[in-house]
């Protein structure tokens, strides 16, 4: 007899939607790749990809656009997780692009390599002929996400134009592209930061240690606590460093990713803290996104996100 009281939890619904997206894209495109930084969103995507194709291995490589200004804990975790899953790790290096003259290193106190990721990313997409790149962007991150689709079209120059977005009716994705074009695919489009943490707890996923409270040398700039240990943030003489108990909500480029004061040492404590906050992840942690409300949209149009 068929049951009529079968209900899915919110996480089950989100998981099922994301798994459907992975399977659909793997079926429609020749050379997908998963953008993987070692952060919580990309780790959740890896778990979803595992489930989507189990018991077969994940049928595409993962790629990290490496700024060279990383938190050491994250790089160690990235390499270990890729090895555990047996997936091919492609590294697109910003430092290699600088050394070859493809991009110019920014100068000054607020210099960041975030925008420099665009060239090595597009070079790697062209070199490996990737036609679909899975990204971990969520709908609650920033305003430009509301203009995109799950399958987001990029032209032959890797650029995004909101006016070129194709219609998506229900879960019918437009996957038609010409040679030289590609798409970015966002399986986490309907997830929030709190959903991510709830899923990490449910699936018992390991995370880099800097997501949890620890003592760190930091300094304050424009209301953000930037890392003083790696030396990537170009601390000035008028920006004294001090020790604080902090954690990171995201693990991007160490030169512009801020920590938050926190005593949350466990998943339950982090989830309680996230549920109570009224400041978005990027608003609280990303210095380069504070330059203007259009900062993220500009980088999308240039080809990175």
TrEMBL record:
Keywords: ATP-binding, Nucleotide-binding, Nucleotidyltransferase, Transferase. This is Sulfate adenylyltransferase subunit 2. Belongs to the PAPS reductase family. CysD subfamily. Residues 281-305 are annotated as: Disordered. GO terms for molecular function: sulfate adenylyltransferase (ATP) activity. It holds the Pfam family PAPS_reduct. The gene is cysD. It comes from Actinomadura chokoriensis. Residues 32-258 form the Phosphoadenosine phosphosulphate reductase domain. Its EC number is 2.7.7.4. The keyword Nucleotidyltransferase applies. The lineage of its organism: Bacteria, Bacillati, Actinomycetota, Actinomycetes, Streptosporangiales. It comes from the Bacteria. Gene3D superfamilies: HUPs.
């Amino acid at each position: 007899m068929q049951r009529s009281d079968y209900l899915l939890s919110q996480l089950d619904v989100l998981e099922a939607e994301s798994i459907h997206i992975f399977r659909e894209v793997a079926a429609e495109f020749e050379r997908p790749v998963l953008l993987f930084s070692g952060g919580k969103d990309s780790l959740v995507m890896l778990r979803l990809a595992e489930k989507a194709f189990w018991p077969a291995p994940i049928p595409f490589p993962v790629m990290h656009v490496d700024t060279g200004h990383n938190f050491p804990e994250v790089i160690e975790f990235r390499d270990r997780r890729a090895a555990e899953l047996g997936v091919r790790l492609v590294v697109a290096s910003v430092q290699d692009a600088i050394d070859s003259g493809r991009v110019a290193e920014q100068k000054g106190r607020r210099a960041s390599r975030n925008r420099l990721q665009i060239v090595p990313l597009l070079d790697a997409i062209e070199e490996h002929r990737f036609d679909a790149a899975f990204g971990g962007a969520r709908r609650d991150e920033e305003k430009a996400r509301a203009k995109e689709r799950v399958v987001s079209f990029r032209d032959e120059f890797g650029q995004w134009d909101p006016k070129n977005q194709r219609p998506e009716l229900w879960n019918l994705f437009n996957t038609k592209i010409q040679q030289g074009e590609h798409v970015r695919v966002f399986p986490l489009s309907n997830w929030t930061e709190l959903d991510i943490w709830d899923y990490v707890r449910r699936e018992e996923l390991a995370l880099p240690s800097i997501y949890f409270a620890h003592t760190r040398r930091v300094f304050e700039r424009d209301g953000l606590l930037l890392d003083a240990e790696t030396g990537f943030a170009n601390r000035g003489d008028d920006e004294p460093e001090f020790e604080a108990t902090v954690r990171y909500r995201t693990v991007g480029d160490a030169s512009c990713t801020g920590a938050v004061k926190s005593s949350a040492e466990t998943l339950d404590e982090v989830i309680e803290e996230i549920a109570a906050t009224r400041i978005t992840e990027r608003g609280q942690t990303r210095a380069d996104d504070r330059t203007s409300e259009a900062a993220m949209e500009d980088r999308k149009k240039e080809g990175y996100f």
